[in-house]
Amino acid sequence: MSRKPAKGEYIETDTGNKVSRRSQIIGTTNIILGGKTVIQAEVIIRGDLLRTYPSSNPNEKQGTPVAVAIGRYCFFSRGCELRPPGKLYKGSFSHYPLKIADHVFVGPGSIIEAALIGSHVNIGSNVVVGKFAIIKDFVKILDGTVVPANMVIPSFSIVAGRPAQIVGEIAEGEIEGFDLREAYRAVGNS
Amino acid sequence: MSSLKRASTAPPAPKPPVHFAPALVIADNAALTGTNLISIGLHTIIHPRAKLNSTYGPITIGSNCIISERSQIGFQNPPSNSHSEGVFIENGVVIETGAIVEARKVGEGSVVEVNARIGKGAILGKHCKVGALCEVQAGEIIGDFTVLYADGMRRVDRAGIEDLKLKMVGRQTEILRKLIPSNPTKFQ
Question: ipTM score here?
Fold first, then answer.
């Protein structure tokens, strides 16, 4: 980089999130970041696509609507996008929240419209995760995969192809590689 | 990096001529560039960060369309003479995130999914679906009801539920109208 930004590229929040100044986050009030999450430049997060269909669970708090919920130590690489999925249900269209657990890595240029992503998921670059896909814990999605809408990916699987298929299993010993604490520390203004 | 720098010092580009129907939604962050006419129909939704480029030909978008973020509509570089008619998108078309549409015509009720690409001068029939990352070559003509999927596979889907699908797009635009703040005056 030829020019050093005056203030540094990342804004660090109280809970340790590192958010690039060049990220394109829309609807910030509807996004929950669990802490220690990295959001790189040109990442789009669509917090404005809220649920409009009333919740069937009356006990749920009505106060703050959530469109995107993200856990701890997640890493969103340059140019990826998080978008809550939408569908027609009982004659009315609504978006539904996109929930992401801890230690989830999303590679550059990937577009995520999943309903749920479990912990320790590694998503490669230029992956498309279709609407309402559910990805369980410890899953690796290889580069260029297209996960079709509504697909459920079981734990400990390796997924690739267009459309995505399970091509392998994650061995017991490989679990360590999913920890993103190192990746979090490596990003910063210095 | 250097290109970014240059953009910031250059004077703002002139706005392209536009023709907006009433009750459309165009987000503040959408980008309209070029010199030819951009006309957008009734109840169409332009998401933030969508790019419409009319430098090399006019763009016409019908009613009840959804143009998602990061999608690029219009020729990205100078066309050869044979396809200089511009881009025409009919009613009820959904263009998803990151798709590049340089087609001469996209038929009614078609869906162009994430990061798909439609080449210059291609003609897409009615109720087609171009799957994620699929590509339609320049000048290609795709018949009605065709579904492009996987790695260049094609099939024809005559499920007969086009009307329902159009209705669903209508519902979707209704909801998006409530969610996305519109600022058409910025572009006029």
Answer: 0.85
